[in-house]
Amino acid sequence: MNERDLGRLLGSGAEDSGCDVALSTLDQYVEAEIEGSNVLALWPAVAEHLQNCDACREDHEGLIALTRSNLGA
Known about the structure:
Blueprint: H1 3-10, H2 19-35, H3 39-42, H4 44-52, H5 54-72
């Protein structure tokens, strides 16, 4: 059992936001994350969802990579 599976089993206590909410706030979430803000405190339900949803997590990782590459340009 890996850490993500264990997290799913035990849960974080936060409600899962679902895909619609996660995707609608993903740009703000990523921007805050890159700036060093505590996204777990700002959007606990989105953080929970990203931990549980492979598709949204892939979108998150892609947006992080894109944003970082644009900042370095």
